[in-house]
Design goal:
CATH superfamily of the largest domain: NAD(P)-binding Rossmann-like Domain
Largest sheet: 7 strands, mixed
Distance between the termini: 32 Å
CATH architecture of the largest domain: 3-Layer(aba) Sandwich
Radius of gyration: 23 Å
Bound molecules: nicotinamide-adenine-dinucleotide
Number of strands: 13
CATH class of the largest domain: Alpha Beta
Structural class: alpha/beta
């Protein structure tokens, strides 16, 4: 138990797991095998910085190796600890199973506040951490493939892949040792926005179903829905930006580390993000909105959709009964504690669970890994061939129209849109959309199809655990 009388993050994940397996028919041995974290490596290393040796502590946890490589981000935050990394690794196992990404689950973390260090210092620290993991095959294209998480991004991934290449000079698959790389370093179009876009696709799929809309008492589609988002980082920014620019949502609240912003008429997400970039990452003093010193109270504000996209445990026993949003989508990992989950379920709040909601990141990471292993970008072979076949059809239509004097004219812009073959970005989006829809379908079949399953989280766990169990069974375990 943590100090606040709540389970720790890992205990919370295990308790959610237990709720699901209680409804399944697994042997106790297999149940235990799936739940436990296989291994956690702790490393303490020194780096000479600012004239003295600084010691850092890092972790890489492997939850399940039923499929390899194992996959999961690397987080940079001051409070990273073994419990957290193990909880996140477990969620990765279930997430990959749910979206059918052929990986086991892993996660890494480094206890560091990245804002305290200069870029060249962060590079030294990252390379040293990567070295420790690479030499134990805890970073390796066929065994363990990290990605960005809180506090890390393309830049850190580029340093890691370079470090790996230096240590494995003849490995032709070196770029596949990590995903979330910059395009120039072997990355894939659409990865940076992938988790946020996945949140958007998840909501779009949810709102397609009348039963789902009725369950949370919201009508129509996403257009005009009011949204509060916590955390305007990689995931929160892209989710908020896409929901407002493409889906017509009104972002009425943004909660950041230093407080919250509120505007009933809707906040300009791009302007807030730019303000943060220019003012040390904070939202305070942003002129176009009401500033709320204790940002967390905005979690309790009136809105249609609440998107926690910052960190775990923010919706807990202390505030759960005051949350008003009828629909919460967990863009962050573990934002709702086990106890809070129970309170919200009793109130009838619908929760779209993390293992599905933020799976867009690992889905596009999977595409990136495949791209790296196949050494060719998606669409390179087919694009022009597709265009020439489309051209044939257009030519034929135009010929028919002219020969028969029919006077047909195509709608404005149709020809250009139809003729264009799909590039990598379009293929990535199509693959992501399809993945999110299929994963949602598999959850909803259980949610609506079984009388003993009353929420999406348990449904998600049942789908994921069943797939992991089948994988173990097929190995004869
Ligand atoms: P990030 O570091 O890019 O952004 C996190 C944001 O949250 C920052 O803007 C930070 O200032 C803010 N924040 C931190 N603590 C806060 C607090 N107490 N209150 C309000 N705001 C706070 O991180 P990210 O990559 O966007 O990850 C966010 C969450 O999404 C994490 O739970 C992570 O595990 C999860 N996630 C990330 C990815 C990914 O692809 N990056 C994929 C899946 C899940």
């Amino acid at each position: 138990m943590s100090a606040m009388g709540e389970p720790t993050f890992r205990e919370s994940v295990d308790m959610m797991f237990n709720r699901a397996v209680a409804l399944m028919d697994l042997s106790p041995g297999l149940e235990e095998k799936i739940r436990v974290c296989n291994s956690t490596y702790t490393v303490r290393f020194g780096v000479r910085l600012r004239g003295k040796i600084e010691t850092f502590t890092g972790y890489r946890s492997v939850h399940s190796e039923h499929m390899e490589p194992v996959k999961g981000g690397i987080r940079y935050a001051p409070n990273v600890n073994q419990d957290e990394v193990e909880a996140l690794a477990a969620l990765m196992t279930y997430k990959c199973a749910l979206v059918e990404a052929p990986f086991g689950g892993s996660k890494g973390g480094l206890c560091i506040d990245p804002r305290e260090w200069e870029v060249h210092e962060l590079e030294q620290i990252t390379r040293r951490f990567a070295y420790e993991l690479i030499k134990r095959d805890l970073i390796n294209p066929s065994q363990n493939v990290p990605a960005p998480d809180m506090g890390t991004g393309e830049r850190e991934m580029a340093w890691i892949v370079d470090q790996y290449s230096r240590m494995h000079t003849t490995d032709i698959n070196a770029p596949a040792c990590v995903t979330g790389k910059p395009i120039s370093g072997g990355g894939i179009h659409g990865r940076v926005e992938a988790t946020g876009r996945g949140v958007q696709y998840a909501l779009m799929e949810y709102f397609r179903h009348p039963e789902e809309r009725a369950a949370c008492g919201l009508q129509g589609d996403l257009d005009g829905k009011t949204v509060v988002v916590q955390g305007l980082g990689n995931v929160g920014y892209h989710a908020a930006s896409l929901l407002s620019a493409e889906s017509g949502c009104r972002i009425v609240g943004i909660i950041e580390r230093d407080g919250g912003l509120w505007d009933e008429k809707g906040l300009d997400v791009e302007a807030v993000r730019q303000w943060m970039d220019r003012h040390g990452g904070g939202v305070k003093d942003y002129p176009e909105a009401t500033f709320v010193e204790n940002g967390a109270v905005l979690l309790e504000a009136d809105c249609d959709i609440l998107i926690p996209a910052a960190m775990e445990g923010v919706i807990n026993l202390h505030n759960a009964d005051r949350i008003k949003a009828p629909l919460i989508i967990e863009a962050a990992n573990g934002p709702i504690t086990f106890g809070a989950d129970e309170i919200l379920r009793k109130k009838g709040t619908i929760i779209i669970p993390d293992m599905f909601a933020n799976a867009g990141g690992v889905t596009v990471s999977y595409f990136e890994w495949v791209k790296n292993l196949s050494h060719i970008r998606f669409g390179r072979m087919q694009r022009r061939q597709e265009e020439s076949r489309h051209q044939l059809l257009i030519d034929e239509l135009e010929r028919l129209s002219a020969d028969k004097g029919l006077g047909w004219t195509l709608s404005p812009g149709f020809k250009e849109r139809y003729l264009r073959g799909a590039d990598e970005l379009e293929l990535v989006r199509s693959g992501l959309d399809d993945t999110m829809r299929s994963a949602y379908q598999s959850m909803r079949e259980i949610w609506h199809g079984r009388a003993d399953v009353t929420d999406l989280r348990v449904a998600a766990y049942i789908v994921a655990i069943d797939r992991v169990a089948n994988s173990y069974r097929s190995k004869g375990l």
